[in-house]
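Working notes for the structural subgroup meeting. M.R. asked for a predicted model of this chain before we commit to crystallization trials. I am recording the input and output together here so anyone reviewing the notebook later can reproduce the run.

Input as submitted:
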Amino acid sequence: MELRTLRYFVAVAEELHFGRAAVRLHMSQPPLSRAIKRLEAETGAALFERSPSGVTLTAVGAVLLDEARALLDHAESAGARVAAAAGAATLTVGILGDSADPGAIRLAGAYRRHHPRVEVRIRETDLTDPTCGLHAGLVDVALSRAPFDETGLVAHELRADPVGALLRTDDPLAHRAGLKLADLADRRWFVFPEGTDPLWQSYWNGGAPRQGPDVRAVAECRQAVLWNGTIGMTLLGHEPGHGLTVVPLTDMPPSRVVVAWNEGDSNPLIHSFVRIATAAYRD
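Returned structure, recorded in token form:
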């Protein structure tokens, strides 16, 4: 069994859906299905029960999942140890202004347990660079939020968080149970400076051009609303602070937490980071 095929199998087993697994693996579905069928032929048993809504693991598949995870862990640990022995024992991680995220905290602990000899350097960036320095070559891997220009990058979704409108508590809309973007069309929004990634800017402006004060950090977003009565979008689960509130936006897609890295980068420390991050954000 090839490690690549085992990675394919684990992705399908964790997603329980060939389409979602293909997206996660950044490949099309037909070659993924063929690889799993070849694996089933090699093992001599069905690994999945298939249905129109997805798949479930068979008893044989459940056993293989445990073994495959152990093999992949061992392979990644071996690669990381070799990289460390060769002098590549440093990993620079870009984080988009929210290193207190519970998922990131779990990831830090898990990565340290797996790679105690690797020095992790953190580069926390403001809201004007959603790639956290990847495009500029300043970091090896990034914990960020999509969407942004992914040219030359690979991004893997870790979680999706609902968003809402950030308002003063005395705003006329503050006590609504939910809002639509049309309710905010005539308001001034806080915006990111000129030159910010247009995909990123468009998402956080609700898909429309907006006028208002420039902001670069989460604290500046809150202050712009508090002092000017402007509005903007924020994560629904974040505590906005005294004098502010968040009202759900019912017609906005969630904000996707992603781990991203440079396409073609074969550094085993990065690939181990991605795998550990996937588990940490799923817990």
